[in-house]
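G., the chain you wanted modeled:
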Amino acid sequence: MLFQSKIDPRCGYCKRGRPLEDGQVICPKRGVMSPGGSCGSFSYDPLKRVPPRPAPPVLPDVSPEDLEL
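Predicted structure as tokens:
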């Protein structure tokens, strides 16, 4: 999913955008943008995108009696 061909454009992972200290992105086309913003010159950089963490596994309920030998 990280290297999909159809990706929602976001300034946070555009090749042209550079991160600023306060969570903003500086774009040579539009200036200071929010990481969720986008424009028509979006170019995807997969190395800038941080995928969401996977959900933790759901463990079955096991009573202490089930674990006794």
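The beta strands are 18-19, 25-27, 31-33.

Shout if anything looks off.
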